[in-house]
Amino acid sequence: MTSSDMNYLTVALPKGKLFAKAAELLGRIGYTADDLSEKSRKLVLTNEEKKVRFIITKTADLPTYVEYGAADVGIIGKDVLLEEERDVYELLDLGFGRCRLMVAVPRAMKREKLSDYAHMRVATKYPKVAEKFFYQQGIQVEIIKLNGSIELAPMVGLAELIVDIVETGTTLKENQLDEIAPIEEATARFIANRVSFKMKFDRIQAMVEGLRALLQEEGKQ
Ligand code: PRP
């Protein structure tokens, strides 16, 4: 199966926080498949009637599937796009899944200015974003890549700082961490493979317009 199969449109959805809303929005504009659920053991779900295939990927891998054309389109957070730096078209800001990438520190370790943290260690799932941010600030730090539960790192002395996404702020609060510097706001984006966008323009454009109309209805844009 490749998305170069002109008969099908392959849509990538990420496991995790964005899945439910992404599947719901697509469903409302007529793109769905039987048993389309994050918990599905099947990783490819096909709707033969609509000629749509869904693939369910690990969040960080989704832009890779789209860049290489294994999926024609996908829905993914801007935070992941910033980190993965994949060559894809970003066609629409879907407005949901709003969060912010930020630098945080244990309250007890808080210092006056960001430069006071020079030469310290920063744990993150977003090493490229973190590296770029501190470089732009002219502050040298050591970046430690982790794959999750980032808040644990400063609690056990693996790092002094973290760079992570904050949505409600609950995780930071529960772990006595304070935000010290915002990096970027992020929301879910509708993305497309560059070749697919040309070859399957009508279908992809119809999806974009359908989603845009839905968002307008919801008063989000
Ligand atoms: C993300 C992020 C924070 C949390 C923030 O983790 O890394 O831990 O959500 O959300 P909040 O501000 O609403 O508390 P996720 O649940 O994706 O899991 P992870 O820690 O394994 O990456």
Features of this protein?
single chain; D-Maltodextrin-Binding Protein, domain 2; binds 1-O-pyrophosphono-5-O-phosphono-alpha-D-ribofuranose; alpha/beta; six-stranded mixed beta sheet; elongated; 2 domains; 8 helices; 221 residues; five-stranded mixed beta sheet
The class by helix and strand makeup works out as: alpha/beta
**Total domain modules:** 2
Q: Which stretches of 5+ consecutive residues score pLDDT under 50?
A: none
**CATH homologous superfamily grouping of the largest domain:** Periplasmic binding protein-like II
Bound molecules: 1-O-pyrophosphono-5-O-phosphono-alpha-D-ribofuranose
Describe the structure.
This protein has 221 residues and is an alpha/beta fold. It has 2 domains: 3-97 and 187-217, Periplasmic binding protein-like II (D-Maltodextrin-Binding Protein, domain 2, 3-Layer(aba) Sandwich); 99-185, D-Maltodextrin-Binding Protein, domain 2 (3-Layer(aba) Sandwich). It contains 8 helices and 11 strands. It has helices at 19-28, 62-67, 78-84, 127-136, 152-155, 170-174, 194-199, 201-217; strands spanning 9-14, 44-47, 52-57, 73-77, 89-93, 99-106, 121-124, 142-145, 161-166, 177-186, 188-192. The strands form 2 sheets. The protein has a 6-stranded mixed beta sheet. It starts with 8 loop residues before the first strand and ends with a helix. The mean pLDDT is 95. 1-O-pyrophosphono-5-O-phosphono-alpha-D-ribofuranose binds at residues 125, 148-151, 164-171.
